[in-house]
């Protein structure tokens, strides 16, 4: 039986790491919206050309184009053992479209894994990053401080800065937008008995053990 999954989680929840673990163990392709768009555009598929006409202008790609690109991707041969969707669906309309296309392709969803982390903790995780002004080495207030306080390990510089989108206010705002987007989707999949919540505040390996436990019973 194929393993057809959606991976959800807020920025900083560790989705990328868990996606890699899932791919390595269960041999399903990791399908992220960014990669799908890039492939469709670089291969100049009819939908890729359409998507490019929007992205070139900095506009959002409309749902029918996005849905079409996803359906084309899910119809490819490498999804026979299953797939791992990441970054799609983003709206209830897209979730409905996905439900229809998985029915058409006879590849119904097996589960939706939501890596759940308190936004407060994510704010600390995401806004802790700072960078050496001289050489660009990256540090983190929680996980990776310079060995000598105030001195870069790499070049010995003493000046550090924080990128605008790593500043706490920007991070809080980004998380707020994502919570608003994810909440209806979580309810949608919960209603359909497809949702599995995993505590993402644990150690990476423990999170993986929890994810693997769920997947191995499906």
TrEMBL record:
From the Swiss-Prot or TrEMBL record, give the protein name: Adenylate kinase
**PROSITE patterns to which the protein is assigned, alphabetical:** ADENYLATE_KINASE
Q: Where is this region: NMP?
A: 32-61
User: What does the UniProt keyword field contain?
Assistant: ATP-binding, Cytoplasm, Kinase, Metal-binding, Nucleotide biosynthesis, Nucleotide-binding, Transferase, Zinc
**UniProt enzyme class:** transferase
Pathway involvement? Purine metabolism; AMP biosynthesis via salvage pathway; AMP from ADP: step 1/1
Q: Which GO terms describe its biological process?
A: AMP salvage
Name the catalysed reactions.
Answer: AMP + ATP = 2 ADP
UniProt binding sites for Zn(2+): 132, 135, 152, 155
Q: Which organism is it from?
A: Lentilactobacillus buchneri subsp. silagei CD034
| Pfam families for this protein | ADK, ADK_lid
Going by the entry's taxonomy, the superkingdom of the source organism is recorded as Bacteria
